[in-house]
Design goal:
Shape: globular
Pfam family, one: DNA_photolyase
Distance between the termini: 60 Å
Radius of gyration: 23 Å
Keywords: Chromophore, FAD, Flavoprotein, Lyase
Number of helices: 19
Largest sheet: 5 strands, parallel
Family: Belongs to the DNA photolyase class-1 family. Belongs to the DNA photolyase family.
Number of domains: 3
Structural class: mainly alpha
Strand content: 5-15%
GO molecular function: deoxyribodipyrimidine photo-lyase activity; DNA binding; FAD binding
Number of strands: 5
Cofactor: (6R)-5,10-methylene-5,6,7,8-tetrahydrofolate; FAD
Order of helices and strands: EHEHHEHEHEHHHHHHHHHHHHHH
CATH topology of the largest domain: DNA Cyclobutane Dipyrimidine Photolyase, subunit A, domain 3
DNA sequence: AGTTACTTGGC
DNA sequence: CCAAGTAAC
C-alpha cells in the first residue's frame, strides 16, 4: 500500500506525488495533517486555515471518486508527526510515503526527519512547477537575482506544459483510521475545490485574458485572475494554468499573465535556493534600512486609518475579505516601509495573517522587493506615491469609495490631492507628510551607505 | 512592479 | 502647447 501525504497541493489532477504513487500498482491511501499551532508560528491566520479546511473536504470527495480514502489528522506541532506517521506505516502495512518538496525551513526539516526516521522510504517530488529550479542558472552558473533575465531564461526553457491526469480509479479502499476532530466555520468569497478552480481559470482565459494587460492594474475592475487562493493551497497547479494559457491566442494579455506566473516561479526559485528567506532574513542584509518601531503607526496602517485613501481602501479590503488587489498591495507595502519606516517583517506577518492566498514565497518576495533588500529590489529611492497611484489607477475613486464609505461624498479630484477632507469629517487627516517621509527615508539610507563604506 | 524634471520634436 | 523620450533620484 502506498501513502500520499497532502500539504499545500490539495488536488488530484497534475499531482506528481499522487501520480507516481498510483503507478506502483498497489492500493493508494491519502493523509492530510492539520497543524494549527505550527501554522500560527508561520503567521497563518484563521482565513487560511478555513481555506485549507474547505479544500480538504473537496479533496476528500475527489479522492473518494478515485477509490482513495483520505484520513485527516490533527497534530498541533510538526514534532508530533514523525512518531505517529511511523506507527501508522507499521500498523497499516504502508510500503512508501509520497509527497512534494516543501520550501519552508520547518517543512524541509520535517521531511528530513521523516526520511531519516520512517520505517519505509519517503519519496519526494518536485511539485508541478513551470521550470526545474535546480536547473535554472545564469551563463556563469550562478543564481538569478533579477527577474527579467530569469523570466527570459524560463521562457526559453519552459517545456510545453503537460499537466498530469488524475490517477485511474482503483477499487475503493476502507479508510485507514477515523479522522481527528478538526473543523472550521468557512466564511470566504472563494468556492473551494478543483472544479471551482477550473471554472475560474476557464472563465478568466475566455473572458478576461485578452484585456488583462490593460485591466489588471485597476483595482475597481475585476481584471485580475483572482486565482491566487487556488495557487496558494495547490488546488490549481501553475502547469495547469500555463496549459490553459497556451490554448489561448497569444497577445499582450497572454504575455502579461505568463509574466505574472513567472514572478511566482521566481520567488519560489529564490526560496528553493535560499531557505533562510523563510526565517525572514533579508536576501541582501546590507540593503536593510534602519527601521523605526511605532506600534501606534503600525496599528493605524493595519486598520486602514492612515488618512491616505487608496492605502486605507486596500487595507480595509484585506481585513474584510482576505484578499487585496495586487496594485494596492504594492502601494500599501511601499507605504509601510518608505513612509512609516516600519520593518517590512511586520507588514509581511500582517499580510500573511490576513490573506486567504498567503504564500510564503510570494509574500516574502513581494515585501523584500518593496523594502529594497530582496532580489530585483526596488531601489531605495523608489517609492509609490499614494496620490499618484490613485490618480492613475483609480481615477474615478470607485475602489476607494467601495472600501472607505466615509469618503462617499468626496470628489475624486480631492481624493487624489489628499486630505483632510471637509466632506468627510470622520475620515482621519493624513498621518504623515508623504514627501517629507520618503525624502527622510532616502537621506537616512544614503547616510547609512556612506557609513558602511567608511567602515569597510 | 515608480516618480519627477527636463529635453526634444511635433503641431 | 503637448506627447514621448531620457536621466536622475
Amino acid at each position: 500500500m502506498q501513502l500520499v501525504w497532502f500539504r499545500d497541493d490539495l488536488r488530484v489532477h497534475d499531482h506528481p506525488a499522487l501520480f507516481a504513487a498510483a503507478q506502483r500498482g498497489e492500493p493508494v491511501v491519502a493523509l492530510y495533517i492539520a497543524s494549527p499551532q505550527q501554522w500560527q508560528l508561520h503567521d497563518c491566520g484563521p482565513r487560511k486555515a478555513q481555506w485549507h479546511y474547505a479544500n480538504v473536504q473537496a479533496l476528500r470527495e475527489a479522492l473518494a471518486g478515485l477509490g482513495i480514502p483520505l484520513t485527516v489528522w490533527r497534530c498541533e506541532h510538526f514534532d508530533d508527526i514523525p512518531a505517529r506517521l511511523g506507527a501508522l506505516c507499521n500498523e497499516a502495512g504502508i510500503g512508501a510515503v509520497h509527497c512534494h518538496h516543501g520550501l519552508g525551513v520547518n517543512e524541509r526539516a520535517l521531511e528530513q526527519k521523516l526520511a531519516d526516521q520512517l520505517p519505509v522510504p519517503l519519496h519526494r517530488y518536485a511539485d508541478a512547477n513551470l521550470v526545474d529550479y535546480s536547473a535554472i542558472t545564469t551563463g556563469q552558473g550562478g543564481l538569478y537575482q533579477v527577474f527579467t533575465p530569469f523570466a527570459r531564461r524560463c521562457r526559453q526553457w519552459m517545456a510545453p506544459p503537460q499537466p498530469l491526469p488524475a490517477p485511474e480509479p482503483q477499487a475503493a479502499q476502507p479508510p485507514l483510521q477515523a479522522d481527528d476532530a478538526w473543523s472550521e466555520t468557512v466564511d470566504l468569497l472563494w468556492p473551494a475545490g478543483e472544479q471551482a478552480a477550473a471554472r475560474t481559470l476557464a472563465r478568466f482565459c475566455q473572458q478576461r485574458l485578452s484585456a488583462y494587460h490593460d485591466d489588471r492594474d485597476w483595482p475597481a475592475k475585476a481584471g485580475t485572475s483572482a486565482l491566487s487562493p487556488y495557487f496558494a493551497a495547490g488546488v490549481l497547479s501553475p502547469r495547469q494554468a500555463a496549459h490553459a494559457l497556451s490554448q489561448q491566442a497569444d497577445g499582450e494579455g497572454a504575455q502579461s499573465w505568463l509574466n505574472e506566473l513567472l514572478w511566482r516561479e521566481f520567488y519560489r526559485y529564490l526560496l528553493y535556493h535560499h531557505a533562510r528567506l523563510s526565517r525572514h532574513d533579508a536576501l541582501f542584509p546590507a540593503k536593510e534600512a534602519r527601521w523605526e518601531a511605532n506600534d501606534e503607526w503600525l496599528r493605524r496602517w493595519q486598520q486602514g486609518r492612515t488618512g491616505f485613501p487608496l492605502v486605507d481602501a486596500g487595507m480595509r479590503q484585506l481585513n474584510a475579505t482576505g484578499w487585496m488587489h495586487n496594485r494596492v498591495r504594492m502601494l500599501c507595502a511601499s507605504f509601510l516601509v518608505k513612509d512609516l519606516h516600519i520593518d517590512w517583517r511586520l507588514g509581511e506577518a500582517y499580510f500573511m495573517q490576513q490573506l486567504v492566498d498567503g504564500d510564503l514565497a510570494s509574500n516574502n518576495g513581494g515585501w523584500q522587493w518593496a523594502a529594497g533588500c530582496g532580489a530585483d529590489a526596488a531601489p531605495y529611492f523608489r517609492s509609490f506615491s499614494p496620490y499618484r497611484q490613485s490618480e492613475r489607477f483609480d481615477p474615478d475613486g470607485d475602489y476607494i469609495r467601495q472600501w472607505v464609505p466615509e469618503l462617499a461624498e468626496v470628489p475624486a479630484r480631492q481624493l487624489h490631492k489628499g486630505g483632510p477632507f471637509l466632506l468627510a469629517p470622520d475620515y482621519p487627516a493624513p498621518m504623515v507628510d508623504h514627501k517629507a517621509q520618503t525624502a527622510r527615508f532616502t537621506a537616512q539610507f544614503k547616510q547609512q551607505m556612506e557609513e558602511t563604506r567608511h567602515a569597510s
